[in-house]
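re the bet — no i am not wrong, look at it urself. input seq straight from the record:
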Amino acid sequence: MRDAPLSWEGGSQSDGAPKLGFWMTTALIMGNMIGSGVFLLPASLAPLGWNGVAGWIITIGGAMALAWVLARLTAALPGGGGPIGFVESAFGRVPAFLIGWSYWVSIWTAVVTIAVAGVSSLSSLMPILGDTPFLPALLAVGLLWVITLVNLWGVRAAGGFQLVTTLLKIVPLVIVIGIAARLLVTGQANLRPFPTEGLHGGEIGAAMALTLWALLGFESASMASARVENADVTVPRATLLGTAATGLLYLFVCSAIALMLPEAVASASPAPFATFIARNWGEGPASAIAIFVTISCVGALNGWVLMQGELPRAMAERGLLPQWFGVLDKRGVPRRALLLSSAIASIFVLMNAAKGMKALFEFLLLLSTSATLWLYLACALAALKLRVAVPLAAVGAFYALWTLWGAEWASLWSFVLMASGLPLYWWVRRSAPLRSL
């Protein structure tokens, strides 16, 4: 843990590593959460109708329970090393490594998913992006490497970039909420009726697996707790506020688009936000919104690229990965870990380049979500063992298991990817004694 404080307004630093105050920590959470999910999910959720709304409500409840568990663990174990440290405290090094490795896998797939979403949002302006095979995947890889270069300039460059994009990404959300409110008040909303046969459990489960993707990132503050000022107080408050605010925004915005657009139109749209605004405002504003959506995806991509370098660095410092991953360059950037992560993420998308944008998005979305769910499940079980927030930890564990079940094949693949890291762990253990921080 480093000691140089930096609040939202600014601050001092003694060792070149700034710390984050409450508002900056909240912005980190919301900036990582508000990215591609809210902009492409209406197309995936449209066939599910009101089951998708139910899935959102359950997902937000489960995310809040898990966010509270992480908050209480951070308060109960100050300096505990974040979620990976919580798992190590409860279950030991091997489970901590497996969960850290699984989360790293989830970041690889997340950055590619967000990059694909950023390219997809531009397809309403340039239809060739959606019509040309392999082009979306290639452009997604190119965008990923542009943002990697931004992060190679250092934390301050990445942080400044994140602040600007976070402010801009709120614009399309507010516009959609305003249009939906106007349609409802004036009676012009063509809202899909509630199904006479009621809701369907299987479709709700499918919606939960999809919607959780949009809420991934509420653990960001806990992961970065070593860089947060007064972390045992700041992290819990920022985590709960950021998760609740983002969840409510998503519920209103995604449900409005999925239920107010005709199902055939919404499910076939490569950019449902732009489609919704074009039908209810005009083509000009829709084109402008597509640009804002792309900016939002780029901003979220920036935050996750930052984390894909920081996570292996932190694991290396705990002795869970080779020290090679923890080496910092003169700007304080874990250059090796960052470049390797972006290279692996690029391989992920190129291996699936033959898929269309919507299929590629959903494939990577489910893989990233299920990989992250292992982290959430492990933290909930750690809280149960350590007797921290026991009732909500039980709820969080049940929710994580239920959603893993709903993700089906993706959960199996993520488990295989998690287990694939064991040879590396054994090699680290044999080559150097493990140490704790």
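see?? The mean pLDDT is 82. told u. also The CA atoms of residues 56 and 211 lie 6 Å apart. so pay up
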